[in-house]
């Protein structure tokens, strides 16, 4: 290469030198870089005028942008742009987008919903969300319930009936289960006999004589258990009284108790103290009829009805 | 090299305009060929009709609303997004592979920036004339001619930019319909933003910034150049032949004949500057391999034309490797593929391409997903039976409405309960969730720790799928 060529390629340096000969080039940066910087400054100013930006005294600059939304009371409001209003607006849009599906659920008979795969899929996904927000606190996330607190919705035992209409009724108006305490009416021996009888109905190997005595007591006017639980002890769904003959327990943790005396103690405890805690609140003030209907279908699917 | 003695420079540098001369030759023809093909594909594809059931008959359409991509007969759903991952891997590996062999071939011939810059330069030449005319026009005061010529150039650039943005947008809807909606003001807000943004960026990148995109913005060029080996082919100036021992010289009367020139020690380069004038990156290839070079080969064409005209052999500037150029007697340049790195890339490329082809070829017409419901894991029923529940999601990708039957195998009869759904009808492109429950008596429970769900599309029973699942219980409670 010619000498002239080399000279035209010399480069200015910053003037620092390290290790004797290591130097730093001082190349100019391209102009468009500078312009890009100016443009971002302008964009920042535009942003300041468009959106809320600076605190001023007790207020702040609100910007020029506005947002219009309908609040929860149905009043249309226009305010300066803010994320809360934006959230309200987007929530309204999402609700409006879901409305056709909820309307379809409301207009379709229960059995037809279960037969329509695509409508049913909407029920499963929307129902899961509604259930999580409203029901899961007591009945647990998957509807598994909690012994001594809230019934298991995934089994086939329904205190108040498991038809769609029963479930809809339960969610709409709530339920209040009640069993009087028998501690002052019956002796401890009588309560033990009753507990043995109740356990024998579920095939627990208790003392047969005691169970037989409990059987008589159950159907006598002294204890009068059959008033509510029925002569066959299968419970009455009108009252919400429990079926004592199946393997499912809600208030006495019989499956969880290890030995027979412990099972006996659990049942005796219920008889002795009665129950005044089986309270399910009414949801009609909180959920719309369409939401309740959808939840009824969802809950029905958890336990497969009956 | 002298350092630290130059006069102080400004902090910011104005772009030095590059006015390129047009050239004819092999590489120029190849570039035209690539350009015609690429433009035909990009601008033409949204208008290619395709017979398809129930949806817009467009060969390639990215249906964002319906969350599916139509690519000829292939329909891609979000579940298939790993195809895109494979494709990107293949593209990246192919880039490494090609770069190891022939350097930055992508930059010079296939890159969008190159393609669009090329067409913009062509328009510039068409309107304003060849390089000397354009330089003259630049120096001219703002008279009628200059305003007219520059105005027409920029108007044409903007038109192409606009149509580029427009075409990109047309891939996301049914093109004829979308075009009408766009011009009648009924298209989505996003469509206008997209077209405006792409018009602006195309105009700026291909019209105004050009080689600055490659030099300052593009990360591709940076990492492509670090994959060079001494064996990699690159556009190179044969300095030994060109400069000789006495340097370059114009073909003066006494230095015209090749043999005499060589005898006197002068190189073959006649310093005509043609290779510099045709370069879209504005570099001098005779300074050696440099990062701004996009390997477009136009300087090769230019030099070959000059060598032909003065009667010297071609190939003073050519595709050659650093290793070959360093030899005392450079051999004929060829592609060096017998290298571990190249073979490695090739194997990776083959494996991944095979995986992609296999995955696409064996795709089913429906997607299924079977999940065990784990809250609660199992339920004891009133008669002591144990129930497990499963959620089955079916996505119909077939393009027609389909019905499916869900059955089980490896379970006693009557254990499966699907509620009211004897068969499951799914509309084209939709998904449904089916809840299945399995009920076993306490005696049966231990015998069936796992079983299969069989999902059969009624219209294509041969496409049935079998999915094994577990049955959970706690038998110690019984």
TrEMBL record, chain A:
- Cytochrome c domain boundaries: 122-202, 209-303
Location relative to the cell:
Cell inner membrane
Q: What does this protein do?
A: C-type cytochrome. Part of the cbb3-type cytochrome c oxidase complex.
List the PROSITE patterns hit by this protein, alphabetically. CYTC (PS51007)
Residues binding heme c 2 are 179, 225, 228-229
In terms of InterPro entries, this protein maps to: CcoP_N, CcoP_N_sf, Cyt_c-like_dom, Cyt_c-like_dom_sf, Cyt_C_IC, Cyt_c_oxidase_cbb3_su3, Cytochrome_c_Oxidase_Subunit
Family note: Belongs to the CcoP / FixP family.
List the transmembrane segments. Answer: 32-50
The cofactor remark states: Binds 2 heme C groups per subunit.
Q: Which organism is this protein's natural source?
A: Sulfuriferula plumbiphila
The protein in question is named Cbb3-type cytochrome c oxidase subunit
One function term, GO molecular function aspect = heme binding
Supply the Pfam families for this chain.
Cytochrome_CBB3 (PF13442), FixP_N (PF14715)
List required co-factors. Answer: heme c
UniProt entry tagged with the keyword Glycoprotein? no
One Gene Ontology term from the biological process aspect of the record: proton transmembrane transport
Residues recorded as binding heme c 1, renumbered to this chain, are 135, 138-139, 280
From TrEMBL, chain B:
Q: What parts of the sequence cross the membrane?
A: 30-48, 81-102, 155-174, 186-206, 342-361
Q: Which NCBIfam families match?
A: ccoG_rdxA_fixG
Q: Which PANTHER family match?
A: FERREDOXIN-TYPE PROTEIN NAPH
InterPro entries per UniProt = 4Fe4S_Fe-S-bd, 4Fe4S_Fe_S_CS, Cyt_c_oxidase_cbb3_FixG, Electron_Trans/Redox, FixG_C, Helical_ferredxn, Ig-like_fold
Keywords attached to this entry: 4Fe-4S, Electron transport, Iron, Iron-sulfur, Membrane, Metal-binding, Transmembrane, Transmembrane helix, Transport
Out of the domains of life, which is the source?
Bacteria
Q: Which residues form the 4Fe-4S ferredoxin-type domain?
A: 260-288
| A single MF term (Gene Ontology) | 4 iron, 4 sulfur cluster binding
Organism per entry: Sulfuriferula plumbiphila
What name has this protein been given in UniProt? Protein RdxB
Q: Does the keyword Transmembrane helix apply?
A: yes
Q: Does the keyword Lipid metabolism apply?
A: no
- A cellular component annotation (GO) from this entry: plasma membrane
